[in-house]
Amino acid sequence: MDFKVLGCHGGESPKHQCPAFLLDNRICLDAGSITNVLTLKQQQKIEAVIVSHGHMDHVRDLAMLADTRTQQGGPPLVVASTPGTIAVLKKHFFNDKLWPDFSRIPDPTQRTIIFQPLKPEVTSDVCGYKVTPVPVDHTVEAAAMLVSDGSTTVAYSGDTGPTDKLWEHLHGIDNLSALIMEVAFPNERAKLATVSGHHTPDSLAKELKKLGVKKRDLPVLLFHIKPVFQRVVEKELARIKARNNTILQLDDEYVL
Ligand SMILES: [Zn+2]
Ligand SMILES: [Zn+2]
Fold first, then answer.
1. Distance from Cα 107 to the centre of ligand 2, integer Å
2. Are 80 and 118 in contact (CB under 8 A)?
3. Closest ligand (CA of 139)
4. Do residues 143 and 134 touch, judged by C-beta distance below 8 A?
5. Which helix (H) or strand (E) holds 48?
6. Nearest-CA neighbor of 58 among 180, 163, 149?
7. Rg value, the chain, Cα
8. d(Cα 92, Cα 175) in Å, to the nearest integer?
9. Which residue from 85, 132, 161, 222 could staple onto 123, CB 3.0 to 4.6 Å apart?
């Protein structure tokens, strides 16, 4: 699977972009920064956005992506997520107040967006990919997403604090090629990380032990560091020994 970083931070500045990752140039994991990074042609090639949860830093570019798609025409954009997150998007985002309801534009039979609810811990087909949401621990309904193209699976944590279910699922995936994993705050902000459902390097190190011996060398691609704490979090992450960790950077591209 081709994997491109469009945004990998827990905040925004000219040097930091909110989370969004592109698989095979046609599937997005979250929508924190799509339209500020991709050309119109590249945007048109996106078939689906798989949304981990309804927080603004993960969904905001659905707004312009949908608006542009309406003018570009072509097949509808699939927005896939767990039922609770889709309900949030319908009620609070595409509600004809904050933003038009693009699931009824240009008309109810020719929709710009199709919402696809994904049952937690059940594998569904999203534009040819097998996607399994696994509920994680955040401040709102949130799910890690396991995405398989049939030969390779990547796991995307979305935003989460400590959790067990995700790691249990990972143990059972033989063709797992990488875990895209969140970490947000420095160790001294552990309290804030706990109440906001995020990780510090210390809590992440504890969590990674749940990978067990069999998967201890799994590539772990880290994202969601808060820009204000970038340097200190990077220093603290460097102290986590014996793990195949990489801190993602903007424009990074991997074949997973
Ligand atoms: Zn969040
Ligand atoms: Zn976030």
1. 32
2. yes
3. 1
4. yes
5. strand 48-50
6. 180
7. 17
8. 37
9. 132
pLDDT at 20 over 90: yes
78 pLDDT more than 90: yes
Q: How far is CA 136 from the centre of its chain?
A: 12
Whole-angstrom distance, CA of residue 124 vs CA of residue 204: 29
Instruction: Starting from the CA of residue 197, give the closest ligand.
Output: 1
Task: Compute the mean pLDDT over every residue in the chain, rounded to the nearest whole number.
Answer: 96
Tens of pLDDT, residues 99-145: 999 999 988 888 999 999 999 999 999 999 999 999 999 999 999 99
Q: How remote is the CA of residue 159 from the centroid of ligand 1, in Å?
A: 5
**Residue 40 pLDDT grade (very low, low, confident, very high; cuts 50, 70, 90):** very high
Cα 243 to Cα 224, 239, 249, distances in angstroms:
18, 10, 18
How far is it, in rounded angstroms, from Cα 79 to Cα 70? 15
Query: How would you classify the pairing of strands 48-50 and 27-29?
Result: parallel
- The owner of tokens 């990752």 is 21
130 C-alpha to center of ligand 1: Å?
24
The overall pTM is greater than 0.85: yes
For the chain, the residue count is 256
Q: Give me ligand 2 centre to Cα 49, in Å.
A: 16
Distance between CA atoms of residues 192 and 161, nearest Å: 11
Amino acid at 70: T
Q: How far apart are CA 4 and CA 199, in angstroms?
A: 23
Sheet holding 113-117, edge to edge: 113-117, 77-81, 48-50, 27-29, 20-23, 2-7, 253-255
Distance CA 105, CA 76 (A): 10
pLDDT at 213: 87
